[in-house]
Specification:
Elements (H helix, E strand, L loop, with lengths): L1 E7 L2 E15 L11 E3 L23 E7 L7 E23 L5 E18 L2 E9 L5 E9 L3 E3 L8 E5 L2 E4 L1 E11 L6 E15 L2 E16 L6 E3 L7 E9 L5 E9 L21 E7 L24 H5 L9 E11 L15 E9 L13 E4 L43
């Protein structure tokens, strides 16, 4: 799934946000799996986005969009209702405060977000891809895995590579690595990559110079080259990563968007292995490069079958070590999780806890939280509980937008690839 030209209140913040690759490396003692490494784009990720089931895969009242498959077929194949778009109450307030000191009031706002979703069933695994757009100006890209685990026959030595999950069946240990392309345009294309973190500093107390205290202090750094901005998984990464503009907000701070990565990834394949070149993007939690027209993707559909001499070797993007100051920048974000299958993965892996993603958050981009202007805001003072002026929750019976539910239909088995058709 890819989205382009994402704007907030008319101003572009993202040129491209897209899924690049999904990769797994398996452990086993059996010949059929000991060398197994899957690069899913080689067989197509989007081509397996079949129809979504109303009320299960997406809310019943969501808007559904068709997609078309153009390769491995003599004519375009339509997949009905394979993307859904819906507004979602995230189940917690976006912000709120109850004041019980001196002046009594309540102010809050429901966290209603716009969700784009598709689910791709790539062989045994189903990946649920979500792009979520928040009223605070944040954008989230995330993935959850479900479906069937890939397993092997239980033999001597198998338990070094997983757990028994059924009679004579081993659930094999494996990694999941997902790469996203995040092409942010923060107030234009002349951007910088900055990090922020904290350190404790022993400071003298101004009113008692002979007394000291350890106080948190802001640590800021601007990274200048692609190699400096290639943040490996096996090193400590600053907790705040920013694509910034040299333009400032009202308070004099550089306007920026923060990359907040959620990942529970396993270890990457050692670089000493020749096939690692096809998945070199997974070395990095975040890698920021200068935009080039010849560096559009981090992987290739040809990588699986040419894994030792890949068409796209992402590490080459970083080797030339170009300047990333005052440039059009692209962030390549890798997330994922280590999967050690267990008995609760039968019959299917659950989505709970099996995923990762990246949250793009405004950081000094605005002068204040932009959701303050949303009509979803609620403000209550003593005596105004029933007023509709600042509390739409009191007047839901007057709402004009109510969902019109479509009848349940399903055509997901149309256009499914049949092995007998390819013989």
């Amino acid at each position: 799934m890819r989205v382009f030209d994402v704007r907030f209140k008319g101003e572009r913040i993202i040129y491209e946000l897209s899924v690049q690759e999904a990769m797994s490396v398996y452990g086993s003692v059996t010949p059929g799996m000991i060398l197994t490494k899957f690069l899913d784009s080689s067989i197509g990720i989007g081509r397996f986005a079949h129809e979504l089931v109303r009320g299960v895969d997406c809310p019943h009242e969501a808007t559904y969009v068709d997609t078309y498959r153009y390769f491995d077929v003599p004519a375009p194949v339509r997949f009905r209702n394979s993307i859904c778009v819906f507004e979602h109450n995230m189940g917690q307030p976006l912000r709120r405060h109850f004041s019980d000191f001196f002046h009594n009031s309540y102010g809050g706002m429901v966290n209603s977000a716009l969700v784009f979703r598709t689910i791709t069933a790539i062989g045994n695994y189903d990946y649920m891809w979500d792009f979520i757009f928040y009223q605070s100006g944040s954008v989230e890209a995330k993935v959850h895995a479900t479906g069937y685990i890939s397993s092997s026959y239980l033999v001597d030595g198998s338990l070094r590579h997983g757990h028994q999950v059924a009679e004579n069946v081993l659930g094999n240990i494996h990694t999941h690595f997902i790469n996203f392309k995040v092409d942010l345009d923060v107030v234009g294309v002349n951007n910088y990559f900055q990090t922020k973190d904290m350190q404790y500093v022993n400071v003298s107390l101004p009113w008692m110079p002979d007394r000291y205290a350890m106080v948190p202090q802001l640590v800021e750094k601007q990274l200048t080259t692609e190699q400096e901005a290639a943040l490996r998984y096996d090193t400590k990464t600053p907790r705040y990563l920013h694509i910034a503009s040299n333009k400032t907000n009202r308070w004099g701070h550089q306007r920026s968007y923060r990359l907040q990565v959620f990942s529970f990834a396993g270890d990457h394949l050692p670089e000493s292995q020749p096939e690692e070149r096809a998945m070199s993007w997974a070395r990095y939690k975040v890698a920021v490069t200068k935009h080039k027209d010849l560096e559009q993707t981090s992987s290739s559909l040809y990588s699986q079958n040419n894994i030792w001499s890949p068409t796209v070797d992402f590490s080459k993007y970083i080797e030339d070590n170009e300047s990333i100051e005052d440039e059009d920048l692209v962030a390549w974000v890798t997330t994922g999780f280590l999967h050690i299958p267990h008995s609760e993965d039968i019959p299917n892996t659950v989505t709970v806890g099996n995923g990762g993603g990246v949250l793009l958050r405004p950081h000094n981009y605005f002068d204040e939280d932009p959701s303050i202007h949303s009509t979803d805001g609620v403000y209550i003072t003593p005596g105004s509980e029933d007023s509709c002026d600042n509390n739409r929750m009191a007047c839901l019976n007057q709402e004009t937008c109510s969902p019109v539910l479509e009848p349940f239909t399903y055509h997901g088995f149309e256009g499914v690839m049949k092995f007998k058709d390819s013989v």
